[in-house]
């Protein structure tokens, strides 16, 4: 019993008091395990989704300038299909196709969009609770989920990235046919730029793993 107590004291000292590189490494591993397998699932259980926190990795929801600048910026109108030749228009004209006015949009959550590097907190999103204007995360056929705004809801959901000039209709992301089974959660709260920690970490891992480093 005494030897066990001494061993536990040495382990405690090594983890919490010793100031060595190995102690720091163990602390990082412990923190990762706690966050990954205890804290993160606990938050997900509380918020009703298995993906409660996402880092924004693209610029598809950004607004350049104020609302009016974005609302009058270029877009492509017309019925989006795989073979359509789009007609040049504005974001305003594009949203009018979906019966969305500027007054409507200004009532939507996060109506000024958000930026690459932001953290978005999600809640569970039963299909009946999703409304036009909500921002959802859904599973695409890519290796990562998509976070875009709902612009139509009938038997299926349609979305569009605020920054994008039209809906994406390629087979991997097709925004015109999102089923309720693909929906992961709905955006609830934004934390600016904190997601860059994850983006930089992933870039470093890819750099080390695939020798694909590039610094601009």
Output the keywords.
Umud Fragment, subunit A, alpha+beta, six-stranded antiparallel beta sheet, 216 residues, 2 domains, single chain, two-stranded antiparallel sheet
Q: What topology emerges from the helices and strands here?
A:
Blueprint: H1 2-16, H2 21-47, E1 53-55, H3 67-71, E2 74-77, E3 87-90, H4 91-96, H5 102-106, E4 119-123, E5 135-138, E6 146-153, E7 157-160, E8 183-191, H6 196-210
Antiparallel strand pairs: 1-4, 2-3, 4-8, 5-6, 5-8, 6-7
Question: Would you kindly provide a written description of the structure presented here, covering whatever features stand out?
Answer:
There is one protein chain. The protein contains six helices and eight strands, in the order H-H-E-H-E-E-H-H-E-E-E-E-E-H. The chain folds into two domains: 2-46, no CATH class; 51-198, Ribbon (Umud Fragment, subunit A). It is 34% helix and 19% strand. The protein starts with a helix and ends in a 6-residue tail after the last helix. The chain has 216 residues and is of the alpha+beta class. It has helices at residues 2-16, 21-47, 67-71, 91-96, 102-106, 196-210, and strands at 53-55, 74-77, 87-90, 119-123, 135-138, 146-153, 157-160, 183-191. The strands form two sheets. A six-stranded antiparallel sheet has the order 1-4-8-5-6-7. A two-stranded antiparallel sheet has the order 2-3.
